[in-house]
């Protein structure tokens, strides 16, 4: 009895210590797993920078699902919106062009950017870049815009720029000017970064109704042949939901207040793909236009 008692006591203590030790190891392993999955897990595009440049508050909706996708994958996305959107009124609302609309669209744009998870740079140039004021109004305004955009590219050093294509969606002067400006900046020198420039495009074959309110053929006004739209970026349902939640921020632009079902159906009809055209420059010097 006397011999066995201390042994029993000893065994119990050891067992107790062993359990504490085992518990500590399990806790330690859990902490390690947590750190691995949460702190050290790098997203695939961590460190990459995208600059998306568009003309008006709501233009970003054209590429919204892939902005959400790349943000989810870890890229830092800066969204430049060039104009203040003061002329963005329509016959379905009572809004009057000018100051009230500017303030409203500014708020809507902030909402949309935060839903997408992108950094907003809203330059607030005059809608239509003062083209209504003729040469002396328009040209200084555009030159100022070019310098501002150039400064943004220099400062942010994005890996990639995404902007409107030459069609500007439907030949809108601001859309086309932003596209031209980014092309001009990109080709003004050989940059370390950005290395790539992409234009958003609508495949001609996906335009079902060729006649529009513009009184012309949509295929000619907007369409780009798929031969040139060689970058096809797909996105997930989660990205599409984020994009939809950003699009509906633009309450003053009534056409965007469509239901989730309508939005989803339209996106799915396009195969949940955004088509882009990469700017490609020849790499060899030629001495003939027929090469
Ligand atoms: Zn626009």
List keywords for this structure.
291 residues, alpha/beta, Rossmann fold, 7-stranded mixed sheet, two-stranded parallel ribbon, 9 strands, 44% helix, 15% strand, disordered N terminus, binds zinc ion
Give the terminus-to-terminus CA distance: 105 Å
Secondary structure: helix percent: 40-55%
Total count of domains: 1
Mean of all residue-level pLDDT scores: 87
CATH class identity = Alpha Beta
Instruction: Give the overall shape.
Output: globular
- Radius of gyration using CA atoms only: 27 Å
Structural class: alpha/beta
CATH architect. name: 3-Layer(aba) Sandwich
Report the β-strand fraction as a percent range.
15-25%
CATH 4th-level superfamily: LmbE-like
Quaternary structure state of the chains depicted? single chain
**Compounds present?**
zinc ion
Q: Strand order, main sheet: write it out.
A: 3-2-1-4-5-9-8
How do the SSEs run, as a string of H and E? HEHEHEHEHHEEHEEHHE
- Summarize the biggest pleated sheet: 7 strands, mixed
- According to CATH, the fold-level topology is Rossmann fold
Q: How many separate helices? A: 9
């Amino acid at each position: 009895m006397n011999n066995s008692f201390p042994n029993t006591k000893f065994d119990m203590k050891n067992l107790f210590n062993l359990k504490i030790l085992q518990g500590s190891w399990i806790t330690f392993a859990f902490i390690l797993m947590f750190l691995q999955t949460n702190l050290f897990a790098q997203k695939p595009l961590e460190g990459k920078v995208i600059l998306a440049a568009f003309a008006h508050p709501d233009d970003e909706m054209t590429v919204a699902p892939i902005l959400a996708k790349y943000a989810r994958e870890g890229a830092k996305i800066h969204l430049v919106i060039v104009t203040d959107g003061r002329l963005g009124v329509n016959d379905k609302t009572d809004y009057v062009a000018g100051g009230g609309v500017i303030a409203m669209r500014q708020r809507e744009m902030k909402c949309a950017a935060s839903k997408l998870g992108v950094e907003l740079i809203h330059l607030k140039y005059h809608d239509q870049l003062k083209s209504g004021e003729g040469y002396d109004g328009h040209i200084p305004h555009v030159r100022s815009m070019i310098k501002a955009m150039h400064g943004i590219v220099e400062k942010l050093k994005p890996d990639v720029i995404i902007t409107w294509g030459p069609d500007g969606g439907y030949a809108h002067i601001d859309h086309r000017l932003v596209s031209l400006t980014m092309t001009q900046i990109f080709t003004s020198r050989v940059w370390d970064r950005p290395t790539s420039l992409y234009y958003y495009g609508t495949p001609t074959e996906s335009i079902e109704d060729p006649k529009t309110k513009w009184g012309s053929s949509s295929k000619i006004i907007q369409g780009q042949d798929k031969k040139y739209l060689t970058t096809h970026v797909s996105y997930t349902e989660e990205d599409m939901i984020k994009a939809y939640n950003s699009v509906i921020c633009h309450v003053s632009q009534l056409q965007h207040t469509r239901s989730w079902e309508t939005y989803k159906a339209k996106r799915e009809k396009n195969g949940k793909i955004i088509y882009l055209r990469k700017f490609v420059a020849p790499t060899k010097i030629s001495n003939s236009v027929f090469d």
